Amino acid sequence: MEKVRRKSLLYRSGLGFWCVNHAQGCAHGCRYPCYAYMMARRYGRATDEADWRRPRLVENAVELLERELARRRDRIDVVHLCLTTDPFMAGYPEVTSLSLAIIECLNAHGVRASVLTKGVLPPELADTRFHRGNTLGISLVSLEEGFRRRFEPGAAPYRERIAALERLHAAGCRTLVHIEPYPTPDIVRQEIEPLLEAVAFVDELYFGGWNYSPLAGAPVQRDRFYREQARTVRGFCQRHHIRGTVDS
Ligand code: SF4
């Protein structure tokens, strides 16, 4: 795997939370489209999709993080992995190893990690060296593998993502499912209930629509569809005592 060096790692994202991205590019190659890819193209960090899907590891990531955490005067509670790449990228064990080292470094400094992946969360995340306050999450918007192959071609199969998350939940970790961008019937015909049932064990759930794309259909129908899905999701979270956030 190719490597790059950076001058800094930890930053506060435009969304208001602290974040690290310790790889450049992402082999998952999502086609919703991926906002990180669009930005990388705009600013010259990726020439095309093939280039974006050839990730480069930030080889001095832990060294930078140690230095940046030691220098900080204000307290950071949580750091998110990642916004512009995937911390457990399918087929890249080097990324997984570095993500584990980063989470260990954060936890050793008293900082919790929040993790979101379309890969497979490794069982090591349940080790006692990691903070029990870490939040371990998967992105999941469908159970249809045909949909995954079309829109998340390099990501891990859905059942593998869910199984890894469930194992960590059973081991006492805090788990999250991030259901966004949830597709409208114009994109794929599916029912939301089986998807919710497949992750009924999680502690937290986030639901959001597929906005800003003509693929999602006419705004009136789309808004009506998301209002109905939001009602179903809220009811499900209440019944299963899941902390739910619905953005629609
Ligand atoms: S997993 Fe995330 S960063 Fe990677 S291509 Fe998909 S949306 Fe982009």
Account of the 3D structure:
The chain is an alpha/beta fold and about 250 residues long. Helices cover about 35% and strands about 20% of the residues. The chain is built from eight helices and eleven strands. The protein has helices at about 35-40, 50, 60-70, 95-110, 145-150, 160-170, 190-200, 220-240, and strands spanning about 5, 10, 20, 25, 55-60, 80, 110-115, 135-140, 175-180, 205-210, 245. The strands form two sheets. Strands 2-3-6-7-8-9-10-11 form an eight-stranded mixed β-sheet. It has a three-stranded mixed β-sheet with strand order 1-5-4, with no helix packed on it. Strand 6 (about 80), helix 4 (about 95-110) and strand 7 form a beta-alpha-beta unit. The mean pLDDT is about 95. It binds iron/sulfur cluster. Iron/sulfur cluster (SF4) binds near residues 34 and 36. The site of iron/sulfur cluster (SF4) has 10 residues, from helix 1.
Give me the secondary-structure category.
alpha/beta
Task: Please describe the biggest sheet, giving its number of strands, its sense, and whether it closes into a barrel.
Answer: 8 strands, mixed
Q: What global shape is seen?
A: globular
- The tally of beta strands, per DSSP, is 11
Q: Walk across the major sheet and give the strand order.
A: 2-3-6-7-8-9-10-11
Percent strand = 15-25%
Helical segment count: 8
Roughly what percent helix?
25-40%
Q: Bound compounds, please? A: iron/sulfur cluster
Beginning-to-end CA distance, first to last residue: 39 Å
Would you tell me the overall average pLDDT?
96
